[in-house]
Design a protein that fits this description.
heterodimer; A: 226 residues; alpha/beta; Rossmann fold; two-stranded antiparallel sheet; 11 strands; 25% strand; globular; B: 752 residues; alpha+beta; 7-stranded mixed beta sheet; 28 strands
Chain lengths: 226, 752
């Protein structure tokens, strides 16, 4: 028995096949989910991948949040279903209020694509347990609207509760407050981040590092051992 | 009720004396008379619209055709070529049942008028060409040329172009893996925005643009048709900019990458279910092009009801609908029994799809509007039998003088300090500086198959996860060389792209080109064009790499001032296992640096002559294609057998530029010595072709030298990977930190 992990394809999703590959490389079974379909096909976890869902019209993630599949994702995430939002997926999770705060355009007003250094701040979530707290990793980052913002109360609360999961190191690529690259919800089953772990799972490909693979092995171990 | 009677075929026949605005649509008088002769009557307004766009320079290649024939006539025998020139894009066999399609096109004029949209729709157009062949697009590349880096207008054009390419390509999920950025005052007012794309498919999935089988339905799908880009092809791409004419902004199309992404997915799903008989994308000349090309390549005729075309603007006239260049549209020919399924797939992806006509058993293209027949033509006369010009050409009177002005006579650095200063000046000059500010706005990682991306010598994409099969692509062009000698300049562009592919370990297979020139009505420009085509065709023949397709962009000129002749050449290569690829970056200290090839005193057209002396004259470096072939074979063998850990081709900027790039990318310095028979200046700055540097692990030194020796390739040890500076023994040492600042801060500072 292995874990079945769903990957949602919205119109405009770009990294759905890449995410499926990363799940496969980690040893789990990827399951394709469709935005018009409320049925999650009994998957054990869901990844909302990167891209420009619905063209990012209105605001990144704002339309996807109302899609049929998200009705079920929101309902089950609240009940404990592990959900990972990468880039556009992170934007969708904040729009869906599964994670606090929101994303604005990069402070330098350009799209940015780079190999980004991060520090793992919380290695106890469903998606980060294969890292160690304080570990420094490199994960590709690529976005137009990656500037994480929240009100002071929320920021203080995130920091106090250890819910900042990843922080940008050496260089803040988009002006995110507190250098926040990713956060988790209170119970650690929902995690969102701007960088793309699915692009760092194979030597030779992309930056040639495999620092992103632990996202997928973390969840696999958790699900198989559960 | 319309105020004027509909200009139907009948009406046209009955009113022979009606004056039509053929001149405003870009037709010459004799061309209009030819249309009348073909039809045996005056054309209707709709017919005139079709002929005018399809007979424009951009669509008909009327000035270039007689020269381009050489690419076919001189094409080398190649087992790899599956589809050649004439289709939307060429297709190459890369083994293991895979086929790759690739092409480079220009979107120069629109990008000057409206940088963001011009560049964005350039990407959109080339990607649709790739889909139309049946392939999934897997990567894009963008060779770009702008005016002087410090000219105020470059600050308007460049950021818009880069944002447009990124905005469109990133949103399509296509990694941008290569290209070039070149600055030269000759491109002021005529920037070159070329866009290339690669697609992958299985052999059995190749699709062609033809409408066959009477009764088959013609389906238009994608975006609604609007008023954007009307006459773009005929007016924008085919005429020299002239300050006296009104703004042409409305003729530039507006792109929606989200719609194109849906179009890609829905088209590939329809292909997978084998629902498509023939397919054509709507680019330049829109429906006029798609219907006439599909019909003329097929076995029968075609009947189209224009009223069924979904519109964004209900006030459009039939002529405008036929000419509109609204983006993100495609036209498929589908058997009646499969139409429902095709429409279902479109609906799944929220793509609007409409049956607008059908294939007939006649041989006419007939188009109806409000019940009247407004077009009745032989589609071949529109699509393929346009005018062909034997434009006069003559070697310009200034060519001899230019070639006599040899850069080898320019003053050279007299002291070590001067040498060092010129190195810094070179690596920090806009053309040689890091283009990270630009390339970091493009997604390189999406699709998870990118093995190499810029600033590597070629971009490389894995196409099979199980076997590691991959393809590489490099695009190169050097307008300065081509200005000095268009024949050899074009060959040098090919040689460089060929070498760049081999440097990464891939075997060069085929060529696509984008030929950017001034006005064909100027005999000097036409001579440059004729020479460049002849040079490229000869060189492709000798290297065994056929031209599979490409694009010609003429009229890149403002007033009397034409751009440098700029043939941009893309070479596609294949590598059996991407794990064997060779990167540019130095990998390990202690590895030995070897220079492959012969270094001569060749400075004419060089980056050094431009940066230090602002000089252009003399003859470009010698071309030796047999040497290029041998060098490529050595580089590929060395990569396959694990004899080299990094390699970099030598081209503009010479050896020092290559060493600095490899050092900065690897974070490891180099200690260089001047070998016997060369002086420091020539070693560093010569641009002799047919050369590369490689880093060889000490354990492979003997084996590598033996291989080069046995095959007769000159190989010279020039130093070692070491330390944190680039040092030329007895001359200077520059720390990586200093080099990095100089190399990386130039472009951001210029564009701030």
């Amino acid at each position: 028995m292995t874990a079945r992990i769903g990957v949602v394809t919205f119109p405009g999703s770009l990294d759905d096949r890449d995410t499926q590959r990363a799940i496969r490389l980690a040893g789990a079974e990827p399951v394709a989910l469709w935005h018009k379909d409320k049925d999650l096909k009994q998957v054990d976890a869901v990844v909302l991948c990167g891209g420009f869902s619905y063209g990012d019209y209105l605001r990144a993630g704002a339309i996807a949040r109302f899609s049929p599949v998200m009705e079920t994702v929101i309902e089950q995430a609240k009940a404990g279903l592990p959900v990972l939002g990468i880039c556009n997926g992170f934007q969708i999770l904040t729009e869906a209020h599964l994670l606090p705060g929101g994303m604005l355009g990069n402070d330098h007003l350009h799209f940015i694509c780079r190999d980004q250094k991060l520090r793992v701040e919380n290695a106890e979530t469903s998606w980060t347990s294969d890292y160690s707290a304080g570990q420094e990793i490199h994960i590709p980052l690529k976005n137009m609207d990656g500037r994480y913002v929240a009100d002071q109360y929320t920021l203080d609360k995130l920091e106090a509760e250890g819910r900042v999961a990843f922080r940008y190191l050496d260089f803040n690529p988009n002006g995110s407050l507190n250098d926040i690259a990713g956060i988790t919800n209170e119970s650690g089953n929902v995690v969102g981040l701007m960088p793309h772990p699915e692009h760092a799972v194979e030597p030779l490909i992309g930056t040639g590092r495999t620092d992103g693979l632990p996202f997928f092995t973390s969840i696999l171990k958790k699900l198989v051992n559960a | 009720m319309s105020r004027t009677p509909l200009d139907t075929v009948e009406h046209a026949a009955a009113t022979p004396d009606v004056e039509l605005p053929w001149a405003e649509l870009g037709l010459k008088k004799d061309e209009y008379e030819r249309v009348v002769e073909i039809l045996g009557r005056r054309p209707t307004g709709a017919e005139l619209a079709m002929y005018s766009v399809m007979w424009s320079e951009h669509c008909s290649y009327k000035s270039s055709k007689v020269h381009l024939r050489q690419f076919g006539e001189k094409a080398p025998q190649s087992d790899a070529l599956l589809v050649g020139i004439g289709e939307n894009a060429g297709v190459v066999d890369v083994g293991q049942g895979y086929a790759v399609t690739f092409k480079v096109e220009s979107h120069n004029h629109p990008s000057y008028v409206e940088p963001y949209q011009g560049a964005a729709t350039g990407v959109g157009g080339i990607v649709r060409d790739i889909i139309a062949m049946g392939a999934r697009p897997v990567a894009v590349v963008d060779p770009l040329r702008f005016g002087a880096a410090d000219h105020p207008d470059t600050k308007r054009v460049l950021p818009g172009v880069v944002a447009g390419i990124g905005g469109y390509g990133n949103c399509l999920g296509l990694p941008n893996i290569g290209g070039e950025v070149v600055f030269d005052a000759c491109y002021q007012g005529n920037p070159l925005v070329n866009a290339g794309a690669i697609g992958v498919m299985r052999h059995e999935d190749i699709h062609l643009a033809k409408a066959s089988g009477a009764g088959n339905k013609v389906i238009l799908y994608g975006a609604r048709t609007g008023g954007d880009g009307i006459g773009g092809a005929s007016i924008l791409a085919s005429e020299t900019f002239d300050d006296a004419k009104p703004s042409k902004r409305p003729a530039v199309q507006v792109g929606d990458p989200f719609q194109e992404k849906l179009l890609i997915e829905c088209t590939l799903e329809a292909f997978a279910e084998k629902l498509v008989v023939g397919i054509q994308d709507l680019g330049a000349a829109g429906l006029s092009c798609a219907t006439s090309e599909l019909a003329s390549n097929g076995s029968g005729g075609m009947r189209v009801t224009l009223d069924d075309v979904p519109l964004r603007d209900s006030t459009l006239s039939p002529e405008e609908i036929l000419m509109s260049e609204s983006q993100e549209r495609m036209c498929a020919v589908v058997e009646p029994a499969k139409v429902d399924r095709f429409l279902e797939i479109c609906e799944k992806w929220d793509v609007i799809a409409t049956v607008i006509g059908e294939v007939t058993d006649g041989d006419r293209l007939e188009i109806y509007w409000h019940g009247g027949k407004i077009v009745d033509v032989d589609p071949r006369t529109v699509a393929h039998e346009g005018p062909v010009y034997e434009r006069p050409y003559a070697r310009p009177s200034w060519q001899d003088e230019l070639q006599a002005d040899d850069a080898n006579k320019l003053p050279r650095p007299a002291t070590s300090d001067e040498l060092k200063d010129q190195v810094l000046k070179l690596v920090g000059s806009p053309n040689q500086a890091s283009k990270k500010w630009i390339t970091s706005q493009y997604d390189h990682f999406v699709q998870g198959n990118t093995v190499l991306a810029q600033p590597e010598d070629s971009g490389m994409i894995r196409i099979d996860e199980a076997t590691g099969l991959g393809v590489a692509i490099a695009t190169d062009g050097n307008g300065r060389y081509a200005k000095l000698d268009p024949y050899h300049g074009a060959q040098l562009a090919l040689a460089e792209a060929y070498r760049n592919v081999a440097t990464t370990g891939a075997k060069p297979l085929a060529v696509s080109d984008c030929l950017n020139f001034g006005s064909p009505e100027d005999p000097a420009v036409m001579w440059q064009f004729a020479e460049a085509v002849r040079g490229l065709a000869d060189a492709c023949q000798q290297l065994g790499t056929p031209v599979t397709g490409g694009n010609v962009s003429l009229y890149n000129q403002t007033g009397e001032a034409a751009i440098h002749p700029t043939p941009v050449v893309a070479v596609l290569g294949v590598i059996d296992d991407v794990a064997r690829r060779t990167p540019v970056a130095f990998q390990e200290e202690g590895q030995l640096l070897y220079l492959l090839g012969d270094t001569r005193e060749e400075f004419s057209g060089s980056a050094w002559s431009q940066v230090v002396h602002d000089h252009l004259g003399g003859l470009p470096p010698q071309v030796d294609l047999e040497r290029e072939r041998l060098l490529a074979e050595i580089l590929i063998s060395a990569s396959r057998d694990g004899m080299i850990d990094s390699a970099h081709d030598l081209s503009d900027g010479g050896l020092i530029q290559a060493v600095v790039e490899s050092a900065l990318l690897g974070g490891k310095g180099a200690r260089l010595v001047v070998p016997d028979g060369l002086d420091a200046f020539t070693l560093l700055f010569s641009e002799s072709a047919g050369r590369a540097i490689v880093a060889v692990p000490r354990s492979e030194e003997v084996r590598f030298n033996d291989m080069c020796g046995a095959r007769g390739l000159p190989v010279t040890r020039i130093g070692v990977v070491d330390g944190d500076s680039v040092e030329l023994q007895g001359e200077f040492a520059l720390s990586l930190e200093e080099l990095r600042v100089v190399h990386e801060e130039t472009i951001p500072a210029l564009l701030k």
